[in-house]
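Our consortium's second objective concerns turning raw sequence data into structural hypotheses that experimental partners can test. To show how far this objective has progressed, the report includes one record in full. It was chosen at random from the queue rather than selected for favorable results. The single chain below, 131 residues long, was entered without modification.
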Amino acid sequence: MKSLTKKRAKAFAIDMAIATAVTGVVEVLLRKKVKNEFVHVVVTPTLVTYGLEYAQLKNSGQTIGYKQQGLKLVSEDGAPLEGCALVKRMLYRDYVSSLRYIADRKNFAKHDGAVLPHDAKTHCYVQQKND
């Protein structure tokens, strides 16, 4: 596994740990107001995870995990990241990207982990910041 791909995996793990902690707090606050278990098991974690990622990437191109790993998401043309593209990127990553990566791994390996299927779909890439 390439160095950048490992850093992306570590960043993702950090972000998921943070989202899980925030979800736990939100659930405690909502538990008495919302009785539907589906909301607590599916809706709340999804909204918290996507909301945190969206807000951080839209603001600075980095999540907390990306910052810790020295990574930044940028658009191919250098323009600011658009909200619609970020939402498409997250949805594509979670529902389609893994299958595309498995089917065409060599094509994505040539980018050394900077461009995965969900990045290519939304014309973005992850750059490693110079230390």
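The partners drew two points from this record. Residues 90 and 122 are 10 Å apart (CA to CA). Strands lie at 71-75, 124-128. Both points have been shared with the crystallography group to help prioritize constructs.
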